[in-house]
Design brief:
- The chain is an alpha/beta fold and 215 residues long.
- The protein has one domain: Alpha-Beta Barrel (TIM Barrel), CATH 3.20.20.70.
- Helix content is 53%, strand content 17%.
- It has eleven helices and eight strands.
- An eight-stranded parallel barrel has the order 1-2-3-4-5-6-7-8, surrounded by six helices.
- α1 runs parallel beside α3, α4 (63-74) packs across α5 (88-99) and α6 runs parallel beside α8.
- The protein binds erythose-4-phosphate.
- Erythose-4-phosphate binds at residues 6, 26, 28, 107, 127, 129, 131-132, 163-164, 183.
Length: 215
Amino acid sequence: MKFFLDTGNVEEIKRIVKLGLVDGVTTNPSLIAKEGRDFKQVIQEICGIVSGPVSAEVISLDVDGMLKEAHDIAKWAPNVVIKLPMTEAGLEATHRLAQEGIKTNVTLIFSAAQGLMAAKAGATFISPFVGRLDDIGIEGMELIRNLRMMLDMYDLPAEIIAASIRNIGHVEQAALSGAHIATIPGSLLPTLWKHPLTDIGIERFLKDWEKMSKA
Ligand code: E4P
C-alpha cells in the first residue's frame, strides 16, 4: 500500500519524507490557502522533494477553464497530477487529459457510481472521501471496498486514494479494504507510528539499564 501526504506544508513534507513513508502528495485549494503562499511555487517545491505523484487541483468549473489550468499546471513539474472535481465538466476534462497522456486525480467522490464514472473516463486516481461520509453517518469504508471490487471486476486501471482520512482506524481499514493509497494529513501521520506501550517499554528498559550501570 502507498501513502500520500495530504498537505501543502513543505516543511512537514521534508520532515516525513526522511522516514521513507511518502509515495506522493495531495493538495486541495483549502490546504494551499492555509499556507498563504503562491500555488505554483508550493507545488514546484513539493514536486522537487517528492518523486512520486503530487496532486494540484484546478479551480475552474467549466471544461475549457479546467483544461487551460491543467495544461499550465502540467508544465510545472514532471510528477504533477491534475486534480479535478467529480462533475460532468470534470469527467470531460479527465477524459481529454487522459487522451493527451496527462495524469489526473478525480476528487470529491462520495458514491461508487461516481468512482466508476471517473475510472471509466480515464482517471489515473480516484479520491473517495471517507471521513466526510462518516461525518454524515454513511460508512465511508464501504465505498472503498465497493470501488476496489468494481475496478478489479472490470479491469479498470485507476488507483483508489482513500481521502479525508481522520484517524488511525481509517488508515488501517483503508489498507484492509483494498485502497491502493491512503492520503494522510501530516498532523495525523506521526500518530501511526506512536503507541503508549512503546513509550512505557522504552522508559522501563532505560530504567533497568541505569540500575545495572549503577550496581
Ligand atoms: C485529498 O485529496 C482531499 O482533498 C482531503 O483528503 C480532504 O480531507 P478533509 O475532508 O479532511 O478536508
